[in-house]
Specification:
156 residues; alpha+beta; Cyclic Phosphodiesterase, Chain: A; five-stranded mixed sheet; two-stranded antiparallel ribbon; 3 helices; 9 strands
Length: 156
């Protein structure tokens, strides 16, 4: 996942009330691949090498969107950078398709609510990332960062 700390002031409280992952310690983020390999099967070196191929980049959360399921989310622009990361991970680990293959198209997004709600937020939100995080679920259902993978030294 790509953590988006710049979004926390705007949507942190909303996420805590309406997004199951926020209550379990997951920060505002754009998911790259979920679910992923069991913890014992994760090859951290291979992930480190994969992420090093992609430059750090800036993006903007530019609008509020809704999925047919009711989820409300923020759109990252350019979204293709996230889609490229997802595709690279999936290509390397084809046994783990995004969302277990439930969707024909993977749409990069920052989930705000698991249910249809109305809220107001000042957009756009300028963001920047230089790392991807691998989160791991603990016995108490909390999620913690297992490891951080720096993106490459190029700048996009």
């Amino acid at each position: 996942m790509i953590a988006v700390p710049e979004a926390e002031p705007a949507v942190g409280a909303i996420r805590l009330a309406h997004d199951w992952s926020a209550a379990r310690g997951v920060p505002a983020h754009v998911t790259l691949l979920f679910p992923f390999a069991p913890a014992d099967d994760v090859d951290e070196q291979a992930l480190r090498e994969l992420f090093a191929r992609f430059p750090a980049f800036g993006f903007t959360l530019d609008r509020i969107e809704r999925f047919e399921s009711g989820n409300v989310w923020l759109h990252p622009e350019p979204s293709w950078r996230f889609a490229d990361l997802t595709a690279a991970i999936w290509q390397r680990w084809p046994r783990y398709p995004p969302y277990e293959g439930a969707h024909d198209e993977v749409i990069p997004h920052l989930n705000v609510s698991d249910e249809p709600i109305e809220f107001d937020v000042a957009l756009p939100i300028a963001c920047r990332t230089s790392e991807a995080l691998l989160l791991e679920e603990q016995d108490d259902e909390r999620w913690v960062t297992r490891v951080s993978f720096p993106l490459g030294q190029g700048v996009a």
